[in-house]
Amino acid sequence: MNKRHTAFKAALATGLAIAGTLIVLPAEAQAAWQCQDGYVCLYENSGLTGSAAVLPRINPKMSGYTGGIEDLRGSKFTNGKDVNDAVSSIANNTDQNMFLYADGNYNGYTQNKHPWGPIVVHPHQWMNLDGDYNDSLTSVSVGQYLACSHSNVSTFTCHWVSDRD
Ligand SMILES: [Ca+2]
After folding, report:
1. Is 37 helix (H, G, I), strand (E, B) or coil?
2. Ligand 1 midpoint to CA 129 (Å)
């Protein structure tokens, strides 16, 4: 009789454990943030996965929009990790071109590393940042890019060029 009672309790405990596991699973298998229409989203991992960052300064629909972020240090993904040197994929769901730079103050991809200009994410497209580009993004502009006679903005003349599709 006692033995039977114990077996029942064990079965009940197992059932609860399974129920507990089922509750935890959806959080672990959480779908990646889907970047909304009209927004720019930066992702921690490739393929628009991992934690996302939707930063006001580079999102035309948000009140804090300025057209660029000269230094991503201090910006965070929703999981609290730093955005700087950690972005692996980007969705650009705006109508404007988006320009990527490896260094702060819109330096890096402009002249020395890539003479053809900054890396562009075209409107309503997304891209993985592979190879040298992975985990190296430090500044971003949307709808405009900084054209310089040299990549070092402190010693050479630079000016913003509007670039809106
Ligand atoms: Ca990353």
Report:
1. coil
2. 9
Which residues neighbour 28 within 8 Å (Cβ) at sequence distance 6 or greater?
none
The pLDDT value recorded for residue 102 is 84
For residue 60, the CA-to-ligand 1 centroid distance in Å is 24
Estimate to the nearest angstrom the gap between the alpha carbon of 151 and the chain centroid: 24
Looking at residue 10, the DSSP 8-state letter turns out to be H
pLDDT of residue 106: 83
Does 18 have pLDDT greater than 70?
no
Q: State the Cα–Cα distance between residues 124 and 97, nearest whole angstrom.
A: 9
C-alpha–C-alpha distance, residues 36 and 62, integer Å: 12
Q: Tens of pLDDT along 59-94?
A: 999 999 999 999 999 999 999 999 999 999 999 999
- Distance in angstroms (rounded) separating the CA atoms of residues 17 and 11: 10
| Whole-number pLDDT of residue 152 | 52
Using DSSP, state whether 51 is helix, strand or coil.
Answer: strand
Helix ranges (H only) for the chain are 2-28
- The yes-or-no verdict on residue 126 having pLDDT over 70 is yes
For Cα atoms 92, 63, 41, give the angle at the middle one, nearest 5 degrees.
20
* Cα 77 to ligand 1 centre (Å): 11
